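Continuing the series of single-chain predictions for the mutant panel. This is the parent chain; the variants come on the following pages.
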Amino acid sequence: MPSRNRLFPTIALVLLTTLGVRGGSAAEDQLTVNHAWIQEGPPGLEVLAGFVDLENRSARDITVAAIETPVAERVEIHLTEIKDNMATMSHLHELTVKAGARIAFSHGGHHLMLFGVREPLHAGDKIELHVRTTDGAVIKATAEVRKDEAQ
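Parent structure:
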């Protein structure tokens, strides 16, 4: 009969596997990035707009701290609002997606601004996005470059 010392690691492994305990952040499992696309710009333009849907499938709020891509020096989350019949755009340093909520980025609302685009992007190209949360999770997504859908 095996000793208790030999059985303990096996029992612990079975329990951890059965209970679903694993490394990583809850945000990686619960925040989804859907419908990501980047607006194609004219040749030489180093600032492009981008759009995503962020969906929080968890029971707790998740805060996005940054969005990055290898094709741009930086990506900022912006919000366009109408105040006194004037459109204003503000840079959001963080964006909280409430528990069970979805934020659909769009023209005239939340959107991404890619600054210092390093190479020309053309309709059909696919680029990586890395969405970083304040709890350290990184959610990877692929964005397709498209002609402006608002026109």
